[in-house]
Amino acid sequence: MHRHFYNTEEIDFPEFVSFCEQNVDQKDYPFSSGVDKKIVHYEGDAIRSVIGTPQAVELKTELHHCLKAGPGVFAIKKAFQNLKAVDRATEIFRKIIAEEKDAAQHHGDHFAKPGENERLWNSLQKMCERDAEAFISYYDNPVLCLVCEAWLGPFFQMTAQVNIVKPGAKAQQPHRDYHFGFQQNEVVSEFPITAQILSQFLTLQGAVAHTTMKIESGPTMYLPFSQQYPLGYMAWRDTKFIKYFEKNSVQISLNKGDAVFLSPALFHAAGTNTEKTDRIANLLQISSAFGKAMESVDRVKMTKLIYPVLLEKKKRNQLREDEVRTIGASVTDSYSFPTNLDTDSPTEGSVPETAQSLMERALSKKWPVEKFCLKLDEAVKRRIP
Questions:
Q1: Do the domain assignments include residue 278?
Q2: For 50-67, how does the pLDDT look when each residue is reduced to its tens digit (9 = 90+)?
């Protein structure tokens, strides 16, 4: 019988090294523009040209392979091509952070010393509340949607947090991320290894560059292929693993609008900022419909905020069908469960209507804002036990 439970005494450093010493064959990534430091690179324009074509499935397969069986990380140049939207988002983030500092709200970082970074939790909802039009311009990004679906499938749950790394801020300690990356080893060891491996398929990590990120500014350090080590959630605090990371991790420079996506199981850490300017990234943490997201987000409130903007665009014949889907995926509760099947019974097929499909139906019929909000509230009430 195979074993399913392990403890920290059984982590195997040579086995870990054997995973990390693999190389990347660019032939495995025909859609890519190149490989640098074992990180696969893509052009945003090339991805956009594939979206909506039969090749999209092949591209998603390639991206999934990269995160699962490849180096575990890839970069997309010009992933966000609307730089005005990126700059507007940065302005909004800075204003909110300043307001929260004035209100003496302290926001710590999971893996960095207090005070070295400025962190804006739940930047997704806060940006939507502050400026719904700016929010839509920013998240109207089919590249983002395709990447999320490549790893998680549809109905994913978007969350985001802004990190501003100040000049002189020191590097983080190498780590894995949510879920098990936030748990102590004693807790992790109580879960079977199958659950530990499964957890990395429930979350996708991403970072959108809001500033030019030279190596001197300390962009994230990555250890390619480290996500493949099964016991990694109990190993990243071990001194031997930390020293290996410090010697073998890699960094790449980014321009504003570029993005990096990685498996949450990849060993990584933000670097030291030796420049005289801030390094700003919007950190995307996207969860599977089948997992629990890290942050609580009021998706009903956000849906009500974006609907009037989308409706006006619909009335002016400026609303693209794919835009509704892309924005809806980042905002709405797009999965039918959990629900109260006594009151929220399926109307067609085997699943109740979701908030996203309700919004799409409302926009197609140009429902007034009041009617849509009423119908959304009724739908939410039906799901309550």
A1: yes
A2: 999 999 999 999 999 999
Question: Closest Cα to residue 125, out of 331, 342, 311, 365?
Answer: 331
Same domain for 162 and 311? no
User: Tokens 């060891």 label which residue?
Assistant: 189
Query: Are 272 and 303 in the same domain?
Result: no
Q: What residue numbers bound the domain in which 114 lies?
A: 8-287
d(CA 42, CA 20): 22
pTM: 0.95
The number of domains in the chain is 2
Beta bridge partners of 35: 40
Decide the pairing of beta strands 39-43 and 73-77: parallel
Segment (H or E) for 157: strand 157-165
**Is 1 among the domain residues?**
no
Of the residues 242, 260, 287, the one at which a domain ends: 287
Residues sharing a CB contact under 8 Å with residue 117, sequence separation 6 or more, in sequence order: 109, 163, 164, 165, 166, 169
Is residue 78 assigned to a domain? yes
Q: How many beta carbons lie within 10 A of that of residue 321, not counting itself?
A: 10
- Give the DSSP letter string of 104-151: T-----SSS-TTSEEEETTHHHHHHHH-HHHHHHHH--HHHHHHHHHH
